[in-house]
Amino acid sequence: MITLGINAAFHDSAAALVVDGEPVAASEEERFTRIKHGKRPLPFTAWELPFHAIDDCLRQAGVALADVDHVAYSYDPARFLGAHAGEPTLSLPLRPSAHAPGEWENVWDPLFAAYVVNAPRQLASGAPHHLRERLQGVRHDGPHRFHFVGHHLCHQASAFLASPFEQCAVMTLDGRGERASTSYGVYRDGHYESLGEVLVPHSLGLLYERVTTHLGFLHSSDEYKVMAMAAMGDRHRWRDALWRHVRLQAAGGYELAPLDLAALFGPARERGGPMEQRHLDAAAALQAVLEDTVLELAGWLRSVSGLPDLAMAGGVALNCVMNARLRDSGLFDRVWVQPAAGDAGTALGAALWVDARARLPGTADPARFDGGPLALAPRRWRMDHAYLGPGFEDEDIEALLQWARLPYTRLGDVASATARRLAEGQVIGWFQGRMEFGPRALGARSILASPLLPGMQARLNELKDREDFRPVAPAVPQERLGEWFSPAEANDARAPFMLFVYDVLPHQAPRIPSACHSDGTARVQTVDPATNPAFHALLERFGELTGVPVLINTSFNVRGEPIVCTPQDALHAFHSTPLDALVIGSFLLEKPRRAASSATREGSSAPAREAEAAHDDALAAEVAP
Ligand SMILES: [Fe+2]
């Protein structure tokens, strides 16, 4: 049974393909169209479907859309339409200023709803010409069955049907779905049951978005910058004042009182304007209140579920500082977060849910969910890695390099050659295997550098044209986590998705100055040799050379663009940034040495010249016959 999941209602458009209980592909539209987040979350863009991501999922599975049994769309317009759900027509405003919203929250809600309701027709006939091959031969009514699945149910399913837990409490926190902003559930004995929801306008995600806008950043995109700023602010200055706007209620509920941000934090910061201490303090207060609130909600969920493990999703669950606080709170034994916790992950959740329901004999409507408990077919998969996007063979990469007449070297030992250059201080684009699903680069489309050099963080931020305060993240072999970071035993001593911060062990911090945030923490990725052997081998080689098996890992992209997807994208990014080298599959591309390096070479001492000669010999040996 083949199930295609689609996220398209808001942003982070994405597709996922599940075959008989196992995802075979998942990717985000932005990586193909090169438009960050795919689109803006506006009513006017709700019609756009992620055709490139859909096409890629079908291609990876070797099937066409006409072969798909179920299409699962991660938004249920019936929940949004309410009393309008049965109406055959809706009125659209031609002069919106003349319209009072009436029973709609927004005058454009009917437009948004009409676009979503007609997604099956858009899927059947809206594919661009260059993607027709795999997407033709279907109608809006088949041969597949099209299902609208509740947005938060999709987030929840993306967590508990992907986590390592056989049973767990489940929590989703995002801006909003149809109506919900926070939801709770429990997965136990093969059944899922809802434990309640918090509805808009009360939304921790929307509060975080509002403050993000107030601090001069792009909401629904730059929230992680506010999280990074929070570490440099005074969380006590406005924490209590902000906390008074949060009203905790029974059964996991909360309300947010009206809040005048300018009255509390002062005037909004202009985009790109100077960063003042009050901006950092506002970020710190927001982060503190988010963490405190979520701890309260999680405490309730722990007691009512009675289960020791927690799975989470929703855009707020990308907040790795909050996640760490939850991990360290002792409320749950283990916390697992879906790596595509934002809306992209709902494509995967929608497909997993419909697949798990449809595989159960006798299920008439696989998308139907009234709160449960509802039985699901036995799981056949757990998410050990996020490498679900497209990959490229050496043969294809080399053909491109030859066609483009680019000089390159085929490496005999990719890990050793790359590690040596990183140890010399080079900054390297690292393109290996299948692309990551979710917002983090996890060693498939990464920029790598040595954490030993104090100026490396600033150099990387300059290279990526990012703000000075942005930290960079360390990757470490999974089995060596405890040598460098704490608490090492938490969550089965694994952090494969860079979704939790750790303390850098004080005696190790001076050895990896560029990997430490200003508060002594680091957003760690543990690398498993079973799921990313190339990256693991590189970390080991780097450790042999330097004594430090840790590398800085930041996403492989240039300013304002999504993470690279194809070899062409990687070449473009390599040649338009000051990256020193690109390691792509088995191939190495290098930039000419800078003038300063040449001058050093001219005047270098005898030992230095010998070292360089040895290095060049090693290079020659790497070239394949
Ligand atoms: Fe969401």
Could you describe the 3D structure shown?
- The chain has 625 residues and is an alpha+beta fold.
- The protein has three domains: 2-154 and 345-369, ATPase, nucleotide binding domain (Nucleotidyltransferase, domain 5, 2-Layer Sandwich); 163-337, Nucleotidyltransferase, domain 5; 394-622, Carbamoyltransferase, C-terminal domain (DHBP synthase, Alpha-Beta Complex).
- The protein has 23 helices and 24 strands.
- The strands form five sheets. The protein has an eight-stranded mixed β-sheet with strand order 14-24-23-15-16-22-17-21, sandwiched between helices.
- Helix 7 crosses helix 14, helix 8 runs antiparallel to helix 12 (277-305) and helix 16 crosses helix 20.
- It is globular and about 65 Å long.
- It starts with a strand and ends with a helix.
- The chain binds fe (ii) ion (FE2).
- Fe (ii) ion (FE2) binds next to helix 7.
Which helices and strands appear, and what pairs or packs with what?
Blueprint: E1 2-7, E2 14-19, E3 22-28, H1 29-33, H2 51-61, E4 70-73, H3 77-81, H4 109-117, H5 119-125, H6 132-135, E5 145-148, H7 151-160, E6 168-173, E7 180-188, E8 191-199, H8 204-214, H9 223-230, H10 239-243, E9 246-248, E10 254-256, H11 261-265, H12 277-305, E11 309-313, H13 320-328, E12 334-337, H14 344-358, E13 374-375, H15 394-403, E14 409-410, H16 414-423, E15 428-431, E16 445-449, H17 456-463, E17 473-477, H18 481-484, E18 485-486, H19 490-493, E19 501-504, E20 521-523, E21 525-527, H20 533-546, E22 551-555, H21 567-575, E23 581-584, E24 587-590, H22 595-602, H23 606-622
Bound molecules: fe (ii) ion (FE2).
Residues 151, 155, 174, 177, 314-315, 343 line the site of fe (ii) ion.
